[in-house]
Design brief:
Blueprint lengths: L2 E10 L7 E7 L4 E8 L4 E11 L4 E4 L7 E4 L5 E7 L5 E8 L11 E10 L4 E8 L5 E7 L4 E2 L4 E4 L4 E5 L7 E4 L5 E7 L5 E7 L7 H4 L1 E9 L5 E9 L5 E7 L4 E3 L4 E3 L5 E3 L2 E8 L6 E4 L3
Antiparallel strand pairs: 1-2, 1-8, 2-3, 3-4, 4-5, 5-6, 6-7, 7-8, 9-10, 9-17, 10-11, 11-12, 13-14, 14-15, 15-16, 16-17, 18-19, 19-20, 20-21, 22-23, 23-24, 24-25
Length: 292
């Protein structure tokens, strides 16, 4: 994991809305330093902590919470982390490896978006299109069934951070991974609500075989029953799920059901009717949203 990374996060539960977002540098020996900003603008500097990577792609942090655990995708540019604070607040953190430079053209084209709201439960998902001048369009649907047409202008800076003008958001910041197939954005305020968007450059003509194999899973739930689930899940050649997930309440949840890849690339779950998943073009990152 040595290198430079962006960090974006979202919380659920007692301490929500809150986030830490910023950047960090990880040395070859796992030690890292970084500068972050909380949702209320409070700066936070971290140094001297150390990440230890396991052979299975999971990692821990010696000075972080005892429940801090992250996983790295097989492409090495996207990490997902779940954690529980001392007050019971749960957190999902997304770390994206930085590219040496970025251009506006890196955003141009079609994207699949999944957005989570917190502390009040909700999601938005669908399609974004970004024109060469940053103009945002597409079509998304909310968890309440509302159809929304995105609008505004998204601009990426040379360092990979993105802003959104006219998007109706507060404190928006987005970042793009080194492969430029995964983007994460957070916005909101410390009083009302926060949102995390995960954008994937969609895979071309994905098939059932593209999701077969072993996946690291990191889940966060907002609303009245906040929590996380995480672990390894195996997807069989026929889409059947197996494995066991650890839950933030110290229980375990077996992976069950079947994932099916549709011709348009959307992925559905046989036991969760409103779950939809999408696969990025590198076929190493999958993002899903659903309601409990």
């Amino acid at each position: 994991m040595a290198g430079n990374w962006w960090l974006e996060s979202i919380t659920a539960g007692f301490g929500s809305p809150d986030w830490s977002r910023g950047s960090l540098t990880i040395q070859n020996n796992g030690t890292f330093s970084g500068s972050f900003t909380d949702i209320d603008g409070t700066p936070e500097n971290v140094s001297g902590a150390k990440i230890t990577m396991a052979a299975d792609g999971s990692f821990t942090c010696d000075l972080c919470s005892a429940l801090f655990r992250g996983t790295l995708d097989s492409g090495g540019t996207v990490a997902a982390i779940t954690d529980t604070w001392d007050d019971g607040t749960v957190e999902l953190l997304m770390a994206l490896r930085k590219a040496p430079n970025y251009a506006q053209s890196d955003l141009t084209g079609a994207w699949k978006v999944n957005e989570l709201l917190s502390p009040f439960p909700g999601w938005t998902r669908g399609d974004f299109t970004i024109q060469s001048n940053g103009a945002l369009g597409g079509a998304v649907v909310t968890s309440s069934g509302e159809n929304v047409t995105p609008s505004g202008t998204v601009t990426v800076m040379g360092d990979g951070t993105a802003s959104c003008t006219g998007c109706g958001t507060t404190n928006f910041r987005g970042v793009l991974d080194a492969d430029k197939t995964v983007g994460v954005a957070t916005y909101g305020d410390p009083v009302n609500e926060q949102e995390m968007n995960i954008l994937l450059r969609p895979a071309a003509s994905p098939s059932q075989s593209d999701i077969a194999g072993t996946w690291h899973v990191n889940v966060i739930t907002s609303g009245q029953d906040p929590g996380w689930m995480r672990g390894e899940v195996m997807v069989g050649a026929n889409g059947v799920l197996s494995g066991m997930l650890a839950v933030s309440d110290n229980s375990q949840q077996p992976a069950m059901g079947t994932l099916t890849v549709a011709p348009d690339g959307t992925i559905t779950h046989s036991l969760v009717p409103d779950m939809l998943c999408v696969l990025d073009s590198g076929k190493t990152v999958m993002v899903c949203t659903n309601s409990n």
